[in-house]
Fold this sequence. Notes:
One of its GO terms (molecular function) is UDP-N-acetylglucosamine 2-epimerase activity. Its EC number is 5.1.3.14. The chain has helices at 32-46, 66-71, 89-107, 119-130, 153-163, 172-180, 194-205, 231-245, 259-269, 283-292, 301-309, 324-328, 339-351, 353-359, 371-383; strands at 2-3, 18-19, 23-29, 51-57, 78-79, 111-115, 135-138, 166-169, 188-190, 217-222, 249-254, 275-278, 295-298, 314-316, 332-334. By secondary structure, the chain is of the alpha/beta class. It has 2 domains: 7-192 and 370-384, Glycogen Phosphorylase B (Rossmann fold, 3-Layer(aba) Sandwich), CATH 3.40.50; 217-359, Glycogen Phosphorylase B (Rossmann fold, 3-Layer(aba) Sandwich). α12 links the parallel β14 and β15. α1 packs across α7 (194-205), α1 (32-46) crosses α15 (371-383) and α8 packs parallel to α9 (259-269). Bound molecules: uridine-diphosphate-N-acetylglucosamine and uridine-5'-diphosphate (UDP). Uridine-5'-diphosphate is lined by residues 32-33, 36, 195, 222, 224, 254, 280-281, 283, 286, 300-303, 306. Residues 31-33, 60-64, 83-87, 89, 117-119, 152-153, 224, 226, 257-259 line the site of uridine-diphosphate-N-acetylglucosamine (UD1).
Amino acid sequence: MAVLPQRDPARNRPRNVVTEPPVRAVIVLGTRPEAIKLAPVVRAMDASPLWEPFVVSSGQHREMLAPMLAALDVKAHTDLAVMRDRQRLSSLTGRLVTALDVTLRAERPDVVVVQGDTTTALCGALAASYEQIPVAHVEAGLRTGNLYNPFPEELNRRLIARIARWHFAPTESAAAHLRAEGIAGPDVRTTGNTVIDNLHWMLRQGRGEAAFRTAGKRVLVTLHRRENQGSGMRGLAGAVRRLADRGDCEVLLPLHKSPAVREALLPGLSGHPGVTICEPLGYPDFTATLAACDLVLTDSGGVQEEAPSLGKPVLVLRTTTERPEAIDAGVARLVGTDPGEVYAAASRLLDDPAERDRMARAVNPFGDGRAAERILAALVRGCLRPDAARFPARD
Length: 395
Ligand code: UD1
Ligand code: UDP
């Protein structure tokens, strides 16, 4: 029996709790969506004497990560600062695996937790497996079936699935993808997506302000995917411009920091009176903005999951999606990337309030807000088997 060390006395953890040694978890995150989706897991670990979390920021996103972590009440214990301007996947991967190896050898955790499908997540899993440290994968099992779309995310998540020991699938269909790949058994759990936990947490606090300037029809647009960059994204900028040309709506575009995104979007859209362009919004303001809009046009994964929960119709500007649940529920449509079709689909929804209302139903196909709780209960059973009786598995 050991007295829990108080790694961070500023945190609200119970003091001097006598128990088994806590589970030492390294949580690896590096981009905006990983911060958002791992925050509920970190906050739950922070609040529990059973866990000793150590948060590694890879720094894959330099500017977009730090404010996000602060807004989410998550503190990174170390920052590997790997980001370079216009980073290439191979050199980013080299820097990440090298730096993560040093951290993991120093920390020697019981488990490494990674999320989703970014290069940070893949490298976190790879560096952990080189040190034979078991990996837990949050948001496991998403698939489009196309290795190059989204790229490199489909590749990353398939590779992480081969490495991970615990697989936390957000939905039944994600768990079914894992089973179809021969990954099954008690270490695959359907938990819901932690993005919904975080959305509820944020909205409960009532922080944040919508970034729209006007009170008319409000269209929120986010674009960043690598496979859309270049001519595809320039075409999408044209579609958005035509939408703003209608003169009856305000288009709000919080711009991703990627220079490739800015080069594609700014020439066609800056200076247009119907388009409000801003820097990436902090999470409190982004969620308030999402809650205030009438229509979402996006290629983002996270936004596809959050918008249905707030009853916002979504047009997905991609040719594939690994999140079919929102489409099946009738609240999202996969409209592709052809500018004419994107314009027509968005215009139709703006012209037809009844059609918009049919899509604007709040549904939660991605989770009920208790994903982190389920993940920790399952993980603690996995990592602390002798202690498992105190943590009954939850559905
Ligand atoms: C990354 C993820 C993608 C995820 C997205 C979320 C990979 C390969 N891609 O894509 O899965 O959907 O994050 O936003 O992991 N930059 C800055 N400051 C920042 C962030 C980015 O200047 O805070 C610029 C840099 O020039 C950087 C470039 O954006 O090189 C691209 O960043 P990167 O993380 O490689 O790719 P994303 O497109 O952001
Ligand atoms: N987001 C944000 N500010 C913005 C745009 C998005 O906080 O200006 C949040 C959004 O709520 C969602 C997440 O960022 O949870 C999505 O990140 P992104 O689109 O960059 O990545 P993806 O989800 O596609 O991997």
